[in-house]
Specification:
It is an enzyme of class 4 (lyase). The protein is built from 15 helices and nine strands. The chain is an alpha/beta fold. It binds coproporphyrinogen I.
Length: about 350
């Protein structure tokens, strides 16, 4: 895999064009996803290795992207720790037993590798299907983002309860985050042992935090996780919404790649990072709703800005929205793959 465009760019080596994959590529914007989804619940799909592999392969076969991402969810760690997780169409994820008290935190389990074995099984099936063609990215949620779902009991607009725990009960919050960090490091090592070729950590809701709170309650746990990974030749990507602000701090956790949201000029932020850290990003996903000439123009604008830079992986600044036209995503991938430095 070390000769693949994606792995080379992740390790800041020269490539003839930027590699492309897109967050949330294995999901709802593809009509073929719904053909599978209509037959099974979301968690059944995640927990049945053959089905997880089918969905992982959809964007590989239909779009020709340069890296696959495991079909799963960031909340499976919370479920394995004891969260009563369900996904309902139109509602999203729910934990029926939210974590709000010291007793709730104490009840969470941390030795949960057996409960996540189905992910290792899925990785093995996916690697057979990929047969060495492109790398497979494994992933997990960052502790603060996973904590926000456990404490709120589901999605939230303002993270009021999760932030209140940080502010009023910092000791308890640290115990909760520390438990999630332990599980997450073990879980990512389980994925590495099962055969993934790269790792991404998603801290999707970090932008809700002040600089001080991000430093104390998010960054230090991501740093702990990364320091525990059996990295070998496996690049580690750190993503957060808010990376246009937090990237210099994220770099201290020593990831190989930082995935950048769309609020910042990608070259400017890259120049502010230590040498040897690659960047991934950072097209505004809303561009994929626009006319094709706009899509092409904005991709070329980004690529011209990054011309001559080693260590650049094309991605969106956040995930593909479910109602983005499939045809536009396919077109974007074609434009990217035709480009040459
Ligand atoms: O990227 C991929 O295509 C791989 C599969 C994947 C990944 C990486 C899924 C499938 N989920 C995730 C990560 C994930 N899950 C994140 C981090 C990435 C991001 O920020 O976009 C988050 C925040 C979640 C939580 C989650 N799971 C939500 C978001 C709810 C909210 O608070 O806004 C939702 C809707 C889910 C369910 C889910 N996960 C994945 C899919 C395809 C779905 C939809 C399930 C369905 O069909 O109803």
């Amino acid at each position: 895999m070390k000769d693949s465009l994606f792995i080379k760019a992740a390790f800041s080596e020269k490539t003839e064009r930027p590699p492309v994959w897109m967050m949330r590529q294995a999901g709802r914007f593809m009509p073929q996803y719904w053909e599978i989804k209509n037959k099974y619940s979301f968690l059944e799909m995640c927990k049945t290795p053959e089905i997880a592999a089918d969905v992982t392969m959809l964007p590989v076969d239909l779009l020709g992207i340069d890296a696959a991402i495991l079909f799963s969810d960031i909340l499976v760690t919370g479920e394995a720790m004891g969260g009563d997780l369900s996904f309902t169409a139109g509602v999203g994820p729910k934990f029926a037993n939210p974590v709000r008290t010291q007793a709730d935190v104490d009840a969470l389990e941390t030795n949960v590798g057996d409960r996540l074995q189905y992910v290792a099984d899925a990785i093995k099936v996916i690697q057979q299907r990929l047969n060495g063609s492109i790398p497979l990215i494994g992933f997990a949620g960052a502790p603060f983002t996973v904590m926000s779902y456990l404490v709120e009991g589901g999605s939230s607009k303002d993270f009021k309860l999760a932030k209140l725990m940080l502010h009023n009960e910092p000791e308890m919050a640290h115990q909760l985050l520390s438990k999630i960090a332990t599980v997450t490091a073990d879980y990512l090592n389980l994925q590495i042992a099962a055969g993934v070729n790269a790792i991404q950590i998603f801290d999707s809701w970090a932008q809700a935090l002040s600089w001080d709170d991000y430093t104390e309650f998010s960054h230090r746990y991501i740093q702990e996780i990364i320091s525990k990974l059996d990295r070998k030749d496996i690049p580690v990507i750190s993503f957060c919404k808010g990376s246009s602000v937090f990237a210099p701090l994220m770099a201290e956790a020593k990831p190989d790649v930082i995935s950048i949201d769309w609020n910042v000029d990608l070259l400017d932020i890259k120049n502010r990072l230590p040498k040897g850290i690659a960047v991934q990003g950072n097209l505004d996903p809303h561009i994929l709703y626009a006319d094709k000439k706009v899509i092409k123009d904005r991709i070329h604008r980004l690529f011209e800005r990054m011309r001559g830079e080693d260590g650049f992986i094309f991605n969106l600044g956040h995930g593909i929205m479910p109602d983005i036209p499939f045809d536009n995503v396919k077109y974007a991938v074609e434009v990217i793959k035709e480009f040459r430095y």
